[in-house]
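Possible regression after last week's pipeline update?

I re-ran a chain I had predicted before the update to compare outputs. Posting the input and the new output here so someone can diff against the archived version. Not blocking, just want to make sure nothing changed silently.
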Amino acid sequence: MWFLSAKSIAWIACAVTLLCFGRGSVALIALVAAAARGWRCFGIWRTPLLFAASVILYNVFAFADAGAPVRGWMVDLSGSVFGEGKGGSLQFCLDHEAILVWNTIRQSPLVGLGGWGANRDLGDLKAIEVLGHNEVVTDGLWIIIFSNRGLLGLISVWGWMLAPGIAAVLAIRRVPLSVQTQGVVLGLATWSFLYSFDCLLNAFWTSTQPLLAGAFATFVILCRRYRATPGRETNATARLQTPQRPGSHVAMVKR
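New output (post-update):
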């Protein structure tokens, strides 16, 4: 960007994030840093998929034993890293999620409890026993969708948020692309998966996510058309093996 290198922009973004004093943002920055180095161990295309898998695993753990006992290690980790206050806040969130998951599965797991605040005032004895009251707080986007729309809504939302990005990451291994193009796809996929991960505990909606989903889907379609063209892949592979002059990758991407 202008006279700034990619490394300079990354350092500026990290500095701004740290100066905002957002603990969740700092944790996401740490995950991004781990992803930047994780390719040495898992492969550059496998690293973004680990974040997508973590989103799915979290939902599996949330449904196992109503969630709270299985995810207790998250409370201990948050308390040791960010302090007891943050650990207590996470425990509060998990307790409410567990009650809401239990009630939704018991009443209407397929289509959920419906809208109009049906997931806020349960009037359930188990809620009174665990929480001390009937009112349930919904923090994460996933629990809001599941309690309102059930498994159909949850699978639909996670489907369009994760599936196009996963398909795009897998597609770059089947089509010869420049390093720059691969970096764009992997970087945007990592951002998309990390945003989905953040939606497990928060519900800050952004229109960037559906925009990226459409871009990933278009990219996958173009890759499939490219492979379906007779002789195209062979010629592209030969071009990759031939020494290219500076800037020639731009023409290759256009072709």
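Follow-up from reviewer: compared with the archived run. The chain has eleven helices and no strands. Marking as no regression found.
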